[in-house]
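Sample entry copied in:
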Amino acid sequence: MTGLHARHRAVLPDWLALYYGEPIEITHGEGRHVWDAEGRRYLDFFGGILTTMTAHALPEVTKAVAEQAGRIVHSSTLYLNRPMVELAERIATLSGIPDARVFFTTSGTEANDTALLLATAYRRSNQILAMRNSYHGRSFSTVGVTGNSSWSPTGLSPLQTLYVHGAVRGRGPFAGLTDERFTEAAVADLEDLLGHTHRTAALIAEPVQGVGGFTSPPDGLYGAFRRVLDRHGVLWISDEVQTGWGRTGDHFWGWQAHAQAGPPDMLTFAKGIGNGMAIGGVVARAEIMNCLDANSISTFGGSPVTMAAGLANLGHLLDHDLQGNARRVGGLLIERLRAAAAGVDAVREVRGRGLMIGIELADPVTGRAAPEAASAVLEAAREGGLLIGKGGGHDTSALRVAPPLSLTVAEAEEGAAILEQALRTLWSTGVLA
C-alpha cells in the first residue's frame, strides 16, 4: 500500500470506492490522456466518470476559469450573476422544453434532488416511479429512487418509490422480446402499476442507465410512457446527467430518442457541462419551476467561476461539433470493440451508442454475471495503459467505456487494441473462462 493510500484509508470513509488493487493518483492530464504520480501515461476512456467531456486541460476552459477567478470567485445567487444568466439562456434554448427555467446546483445528485422536490410540490404527492437498475445519486432522496442495490445503502426514504420495467433488455420478464413487443409489455406494466396507485408525482428515468452498465430501452419507449403519464397527470423527469450534451452521438439529449410525445417536463444535467468543474442543474417548465411557495437560494450553485467554465466548454463543444464526432468515432469504436470481443465467450454483449459503450461479462457456462471478471479486465486494461470504468445491475459486471467527446480515430483504435489484448489474454489464461 502506498503512503497516500494509507493516509486515504485513515481519514476517509471505508465505503468511498477506489478503483484497482493498487489505486493510482492522477496528477495531470491533457487532451484524452492523464498521468499518474509515477509518471505513467494513460489513455482515458472514463473521463472522471463521464465528466471530462471535451478534453483534459481544455485551453478555453482553463482561460475562462482563470480570468473569472481574477475578477471574483463567489457571490451567491442573492446577487445578479452575468455568467449564470448567460449559461441559463443557452441551456434553456437547447433543452427543447417550452418556457424553460434553469436552476443550477453543484452536482447531479443535487440536481435530481431538486427535481424530486419540484415534482412532489407541484403534484402534492411523494409517490415516485423509477426504473429498475437505475442510479440517481447519493443523497437521502436520490438513494430512495435508485433501483440498484449496490448503490442504495438504506431502504428508508422520504418518498414512496415504485419501480417500473423497461430499461434493461437482456434480463427480466421481457428479455428476448422484439423492440415492439418489449415496448408494448413495458407500457402495459406501467398502465397496470398506475391502476394500483394513488396520485403519483413523477417518473424519473435515465435515457441510458449509467451506473447500471449503459443499458437502455428501445428508442421510443419513454415517448410511449409519456402518453400514459400524461393521461394520469404524472410528470416525466429525464435524468441527463450522463447522456446530455451529445454523448450518445445521435442526439444532444438522451430524451430525444423518445421524442414522439414531446420533451420531458424536467431534465437534469451535470458532469460534462463543467468539464470537471462542479456544475449541475434542472431545466423545467416555468409553472413547475415556480411552484415552490417558499424562498430559496443556492450558495454555490451558479458560481461565477463554474458558470464561466460551463459557457466556455459548451461553446467549444458546439463550435467543434463534438456531438457529430461522438457519433462518427463512437460508431467506429463500438464496431472495433465488437470485433475485439468476438470469440471471447465471457462477453455477453457489447452495447451503446456514441461514446457511451458497455461491455457486459458473464460466466460462459451459467450465464451469471461475472463481477470478478470485470475487475480483472479493468486491471489488465490499466496495465496496458487504458483507464475504463465498470458498472451493472445485480452485480458489477459491465465495463464502461466513455472517453472525452474529442476522441480521435487513432485514439479509438489504440484504446480498442488495449482492451482487446486485455480480454484475449485473460480469456486464454482462463481468468474469463
Observations:
- The two ends are 30 Å apart (CA to CA).
- The longest strand covers residues 347-353.
- The chain has a mean pLDDT of 95.
